[in-house]
């Protein structure tokens, strides 16, 4: 059991992790940007550290700043929540290499294969696993989006390569929306994941998802969750 956990996230995501820690008798540490210094997760934590300016890429995604905050606080573990650094293999590797801090999450090498969605699609394709029609390389232009639509039809989902939790995911209903939605997805990917690369998939209306995840971790040979079925998170038009 850990004595103190730094939660490398903000808002409701961070508070949920902190509540679980509280139930286990574990102290919590928050990190915050200048814009979030009065945030609920900051007030809820036992202690909190500023990790940079308002822009997420310069604060919540700053590897060194987050690890330094954990060192200052004397935290013995970092929990990423979801989004932000949760699927960042480079950050996970840095924490795993730290002598006194434990990474609470999948092992970095597993994340390297599956954390970036284009790599995950390539891995599935090489393993002959059926996947939704889409690209395995980043989409660069609106013309690529339109060409994809001509081949597979609309709507199209444009997704952030490093995304998660529905962030950086946009729906294109027709060719006239391609340019605006592509740029919007890139901006959101850059803002939330410090990665502006996006890829394309045929958008499925109201799908269900069946999941059975098996990932090696730093504390066990493997961890496999039970299969569950749920509605997929929807893409946004913002």
Automatic annotation (TrEMBL):
Compositional bias ranges of the Low complexity kind: 209-238
InterPro entries: ATP-grasp (IPR011761), ATP_grasp_subdomain_1 (IPR013815), BC-like_N (IPR005481), Biotin_carboxylase_complex (IPR050856), Biotin_carboxylation_dom (IPR011764), CPAse_ATP-bd (IPR005479), PreATP-grasp_dom_sf (IPR016185)
UniProt cofactor(s): Mn(2+); Co(2+)
Entry EC number(s): 6.4.1.1
Domain of life: Archaea
Keywords: ATP-binding, Biotin, Ligase, Nucleotide-binding, Pyruvate
GO molecular function: ATP binding; metal ion binding; pyruvate carboxylase activity
SUPFAM superfamilies recorded: Glutathione synthetase ATP-binding domain-like (SSF56059), PreATP-grasp domain (SSF52440)
Record protein name field: Pyruvate carboxylase subunit A
Biological source species: Halolamina pelagica
